[in-house]
Fold this protein.
Amino acid sequence: MTHTGTAADDSTTANPTNTGDATPAPLTRRAAREAAERATRRPLTRSASTPARTQATPVRAGSALGVARTATTTAAKPTAASRKRRFMAPVVLAVAAGMFGTMAVPAAFASTQPSTTAETARQSLVAAQSQEFDVSAAAGAADTSRDGFGATSTATLTAEKAAEHAKEVEAARAAAAAQYAYDGKTAEDYLATAKTGTANAAPTATSAAATAATPVAAGTPFSLPAVVATAKQYIGTPYVFGGATPAGFDCSGYVMYVYAQYGINLAHSVPLQDQAGTTIPESEAQPGDVVIFNNEAHDGFYMGNGMIMDAPKPGGAVSIRPIWTSDYHIVRFGI
């Protein structure tokens, strides 16, 4: 076998003139040193799921040894960094799951919490320590008490409120009516006369002056037509809040004054006048009956054919006019 060059040459390629089975040329010192350095380098760390591969790398020995060496690369043991990463992975997942639960669970149950408005209303009701509820008409028809507790019927409460309101209105009306001078008889005067039995007595010479001041004709008994005749004498009287004399009327003062001349005592209040009378069907109503509006805010004399004679409002005067609403009922006195 013929070789060219020397062992010190840097070339590692066999001479092209070699024949037969060629033997690898010995490495130079530099090539052998580089091969040894590559063999001693740490292999890449592989995951536990990837099997380690062993690779035999031929290493050429130096020219002095004359033999080829092999370096075997095996999978290195897990490093501290890889073990730390494997330990931290489930910890990070657990922390992330906890953070998600902290934010998501309250939001999921937020819809079941009462709204701010409803909660505020509930707290106000509790703070006031009051309750309201509806009961059937039968249950609220009468007062009751048991075991030291009592319940006031709806009728009683309504009557108490009406009486209290009537007192307040009466005081205001009296203050307003005091501004108008009137020297004639009042409703109280007529009622006092009726009690003595002289209201319907025949006039005498000594009572001529008193009879002239009395609109009711002497000896005229109570009747609805007589009431109408008396009430018409005050058409044109100005409306005065609190007025109950011919100097000025308000609605209930007008009714009270006219009926007082027939000995019928009525309060100066629409709600109380409503309670004092007897409600009758409109089909049975006659002129002289009293129209009571359902909101208890106004009344006047029924004149038939859907007409009313009343003291209307400030700036107006007693007159006959159509009833402008169907929200009313008819009350009769003297029966």
